[in-house]
User: What shape does this take?
Amino acid sequence: MEGSCCSTSTTTTTENKRKQRNNSQQDKPYRGIRMRKWGKWVAEIREPNKRSRIWLGSYSSPVAAARAYDTAVFYLRGPSARLNFPELILEEDVLLDISAASIRKKATEVGAREDAIQTARNQSESNPVNQLAEKPDLNKYPESSEED
Assistant: This one.
């Protein structure tokens, strides 16, 4: 009778952990990133064999934060690292000085570039091309459009 009691609590604990894992996967679409309360996405990574972390930046899109994380993890762990976007890492791009500062610099460059691309893409989707073509010339006096 005691064994059945313990197995039930273990089962519930396992089910709770599985539910939490599924919820966290929905909240965190990529590895190595998290979302702040106010909506920004941040990336950081723990240095190997140390307790310290390398801050990789704060971004407006999860893709940009994930790209920054991928860059840092690639330089720390090499080609065997588990990446979010393995097809986007260039193996020819090698850092000779693999210090935390150089990894942070490279990762923030990649993240900032991706963030700019994502922001431009979102703005172009929200602004149709027709609105861009119909910008008024501010140097001209407005013409009256009188219809008879």
